[in-house]
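Review this today:
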Amino acid sequence: MIIWVFFLIFNGQMNNFILINYLTNNMTERMSTYDLSDLDIEILKKLSTDGRFSLRQIAKALGNKSPVTIKNHLENLETNGIIVDYGAKINFERLGYEVVAIIEVTISKGKMFEVEEEIANNPNVFAVYDITGTYDALILAKFKTREELSKMIKQIHKSPNVERTNTHFVLNTIKESSSFVDLIGKEREKK
C-alpha cells in the first residue's frame, strides 16, 4: 500500500513543496498492538534478566513448562515483532566511554531525514529521535573524551541543513534500561 502525503510549508511565503512517500506492506498490521499472555510476559521477564537462558532453563524456571511450549511462545513473539533481537548488555564506562551527551538539533525544513541518517551513521551515536518542541531531533551518544564529542558537534555543524545544536552532558546515570517488561506486567494487572 502506498500513501502519499503532501505538505505546503509556509515561512512568510511558500518556500518548499515537500513530498513524503510512505511505503508500508499492511497499514492495519503496523498500527495494531499485540496482546501478551501471562506466559509471554514471564518469558520476556526471564530473557530480560539474562538473554542466554536456554529453553529448558526458562521452562524449568516458569514452573516446569514444556520446552516446546516455551519455544512456540518465543517463535510467536519473534514472528509478531515483540522480540526483535538478542544481544549482550555492555558496560560502556568500563570500556572508557564515560562522556554521555544528549544533543538537540534544529534542522532546515525538509531535510530532517537526511540529516538524521547522516548523524545516525556516526558510531558514537546510539539513538536518534524525531521530537516535538523547539528542536527537531534528539541525539544520544557516548564518547571516551570531550574532544571526541567536540569533533562530532563540529561535524554536525558542517552540514548546511543544521541550523543549531544544544548539547547536554549527563552527570550521573540513574537508570538506563531497554527492558520495559515490568511496565507490560503492570499494564496487564490494570485490566
Notes: The longest strand covers residues 13-23. Confidence is low (pLDDT under 50) at residues 1-29.
